[in-house]
Amino acid sequence: MAAYGGIDLGGTKIQTAVLDQDHSVLGSARRPTPTSGGPADVAREIEAAMRDAAKAAELKTGDLAGVGVGSPGVIEAGNVTSARNLPGWEGSFPLAKTLEKSFGCEVQVGNDVQVATDAEFKLGAGRLYQSLLGVFWGTGVGGGLILDGKPWTGRGGAGEIGHVVVELDGARCTCGRIGCMEAYAGRKAMEEHVSEQVEKGRKTDLFKLMKERDRTRLTSGIWARALEHGDKLATHTIERAVRALGAGIASVVNVLDVEGVIIGGGLGVRLGHPYAERIAEAMQPHLFNDAQPPHVHVAALGDLGGAIGASLLLRQES
User: Fold this and answer.
1) Handedness of CA 244, 247, 253, 258 (dihedral sign)
2) Can you give the pLDDT at residue 318?
3) What is the structure's pLDDT at 158?
4) What integer pLDDT is reported at residue 317 of this predicted model?
5) Which of 115, 143, 192, 236 sits CB 3.0–4.6 Å from 309 for a disulfide?
6) CATH number of the 3-115+304-312 domain
7) Could you count the other beta carbons within 10 Å of the beta carbon of residue 213?
């Protein structure tokens, strides 16, 4: 039976999985995304993580029918450009060719959030719908679209929901622009906001928890722990993010009128249903068709959704 590899390349972690033809996970592995270096350094860590998953499945990468990669940035013919949440990745890098040399099998590369949205549409929480918006709340905020039962990628830049403007003359986003949703809700921007508030004298245990857990970034787990402890600055920052998500998602829904919204990503999955409900509530005042809001769900495939979606790139299932 053929086996396929899937790789979810994120700003914080590299999640890999090996799946059979029925999408059952045979083995998986996770490694932190490098915080320094450049594309070649990230590629080496991807290679190691995929070998770990293949070993867990009692296979070698050369035994796989192929490997799919979900990557941030602009994707064209296996090349990844301007993946700004990854270290030193401003230019273009031939990710597919680089990994094919290492793995000894075919490699296909797609947008990370779109492949995760495709997976939820085909196998997860989006199976009931023909139109769907995937919102992946993590290091940044990414979006994926299913319209009339098919992925919609536009000219290659569709789904960039994190860069919907939610406040004119607002906070500067990590993309360099002003007032983007990601400037309030992306975990990277949230960490910068907390650092600025600490410099102004506000108190938080977020960085203490980061050190205790031997992390170099405020991961989703650290945010969840701080919220459980009632950390006021963490609560304020998350609520600020939820307001931005509500306004931004509602604006996209007003244009597309999709049936369902799937909330995924590291923070979306970790904070789960209570925060999906809060996001739905934050959307409501901004919805034009407020009598028929879309159904809002947490991504059913969890942390492996991106890797599962990436593996579908090899099969192009209808």
Assistant:
1) positive
2) 36
3) 87
4) 45
5) 115
6) 3.30.420.40
7) 11
